[in-house]
Amino acid sequence: xxxxxxxxxxxxxxxxxxxxxxxxxxxxxxxxxxxxxxxxxxxxxxxxxxxxxxxxxxxxxxxxxxxxxxxxxxxxxxxxxxxxxxxxxxxxxxxxxxxxxxxxxxxxxxxxxxxxxxxxxxxxxxxxxxxxxxxxxxxxxxxxxxxxxxxxxxxxxxxxxxxxxxxxxxxxxxxxxxxxxxxxxxxxxxxxxxxxxxxxxxxxxxxxxxxxxxxxxxxxxxxxxxxxxxxxxxxxxxxxxxxxxxxxxxxxxxxxxxxxxxxxxxxxxxxxxxxxxxxxxxxxxxxxxxxxxxxxxxxxxxxxxxxxxxxxxxxxxxxxxxxxxxxxxxxxxxxxxxxxxxxxxxxxxxxxxxxxxxxxxxxxxxxxxxxxxxxxxxxxxxxxxxxxxxxxxxxxxxxxxxxxxxxxxxxxxxxxxxxxxxxxxxxxxxxxxxxxxxxxxxxxxxxxxxxxxxxxxxxxxxxxxxxxxxxxxxxxxxxxxxxxxxxxxxxxxxxxxxxxxxxxxxxxxxxxxxxxxxxxxxxxxxxxxxxxxxxxxxxxxxxxxxxxxxxxxxxxxxxxxxxxxxxxxxxxxxxx
Length: 576
What we know:
The protein is of the alpha/beta class.
């Protein structure tokens, strides 16, 4: 059932048919990797991502292509993208996937490929957008089809909609619809990589397909048969990574669908129930239970997962990595000495300061130490910790001999009232005259991220320890020699003993940040030789960059997924 096929039948407009989706490693035939994710941060012209999960998915695609691995990615096309606060002028403009190189998928006869799903008492049709990123194919399902009702055409309108029913249907469309699409176009993967609970229904789709083809009558037996081909990744310890719904809510959308395969609703429901409440179904619990292997995205993340959810006792750690070609500044392709690194950095910083002035009207100082805090606005990320002692912060930043400034970037999800409140409180501080050396960037996207990770002097990260699963934005900035100042969480926990890193005390984050900034960071940054070159600081930059080059590139990450999750040897499985 799950062996590799000889031909990919579906092709998009203007594209040739693909080659076989089978390949060999060490003489063993392996099938294509099917990567399921709710969001993809590939291109600013296609803003169908909310944050780090989508950006990482983009890096996965890039690395799979660079590695030459047969790889297909499945997601949804959200024509209105992700709703954020503050609202951006482009939020209400419908996105056009063709501007990012996507075309409608068509069969050999030139007919539009469509996927049909029964949802409740109706049939929902889905069209498919496809792009080929140097060998890695990306498929996006879209419910905006003429034959659908107005309600159903809006199923894939927004990423992570606030409406529960819409989000539930989205997960059915992505998981079960994604599996059906692969069958329609003749791709039979060797591995299904499901990212977070949002995608867990792909495993259900596989099991139901197995039951249909093999006359199996017991869902659990089918799950056991397909499980060896399913691996799952948890990217955060937070509950929002999946969705929780009551038994009645679950039955409303899935009971009729399951009955087509002779599956009793109760048989399915028990596979995702929460131990603490047998009336609640968790898509994340379901994901872990149906995956043959599962992983967290840093060592400490896996530890916290096992402590929080004992059922995840076999979860392994594969720490995230970042794409060097995507995030490095021009000129930082290989080994560079500290002098060249500093010169490239200064150029990037000057460009960043000029750009900030254009975007915000605030003219920052190109010679001042520049700290960047950039990520989604959420309570656990603690952006307000910067302002715990406003008098001290103002005094530190306005030091005439060692001036400093801060750039803050990020948006809040409109459905996160606490995140919106955090941003509103922070905006009040930033507008104060004494903080004219703090700039805020509201429209945080891929292009903005590239400017920030290349032009910052210091990258600040202030999460509640245990909540930041990985922290890839820090890796991207460190790849460009940007100094890290962070709570010991995510990837930073793995390099906490490296002298190049400034580690913040999780119990007194704000006070420690002020102390380190005032007594260590600023003094080293402003210590210059006769040529105005910061010898010690530049060496710290080089050491920081070397950390990422050695251990935190996407190349290493993808290789570990290949060896430990996708195609582990028998010996590796025994070790795991």
